[in-house]
Specification:
174 residues; extended; 3 strands; mainly alpha
């Protein structure tokens, strides 16, 4: 067991940049690195499963009902070392709107108000959050049955998003 563990550590070490003799730089090419990371993300992420050929949305879809806090307050990374320093964030709501879809306005307003008030209440209770813990994201909003029925009659399609903040210390509750 020990031999196998040591062998794996040494195999990993021989694949390192330092072992290959590559030089260290205090001025890395951040744009090139970002492009590599973006290409890797595009090639490796599965966002959803396209059951029954639901996607792409056909031309009859004009209005989208977006359920879930992350539809409006996108969770871009974790806490601690999982913190992401992104150049921009596009929420699902912004993405749908940019593609010309109307968003169920009353539902969107309910979510945006709930999120804004949750963030304001957290700030009033706790003050400025330390960068280590990331931005505050309120618990998922409860949707009343009447709101679901209204959205189902007014929107052409519904999208549900789920998100969870996780990372060092931030996902542990004793």
């Amino acid at each position: 067991e020990l031999d196998r563990s040591v062998r794996r550590i040494l195999q990993l070490a021989t694949r390192s940049v330092r072992h290959r003799g590559d030089s260290y730089s205090d001025t890395p090419d951040l744009v090139a690195s970002a492009n590599v990371a973006l290409r890797a993300a595009h090639e490796s992420i599965v966002l959803l499963e396209n059951r029954n050929s639901a996607l792409p949305l056909d031309g009859s879809v004009k209005c989208v009902a977006l359920f879930g806090n992350a539809s409006y307050d996108f969770l871009e990374g974790g806490t601690g070392s999982g913190e992401v320093h992104e150049p921009y964030i596009i929420s699902p709501a912004e993405g749908f709107e940019a593609c010309g879809y109307a968003i169920d306005a009353p539902l969107a307003e309910s979510y945006r108000t709930y999120i804004r008030e949750g963030v304001e209440a957290d700030f009033a209770r706790n003050g400025e959050r330390h960068w280590f813990f990331g931005r505050f994201h309120p618990a998922e909003m409860t949707i009343e049955d009447g709101e679901i029925v209204r959205s189902a009659t007014e929107a052409d399609v519904a999208v549900v998003t789920f998100s969870r903040q996780a990372g060092e210390v931030g996902d542990r509750y004793d």
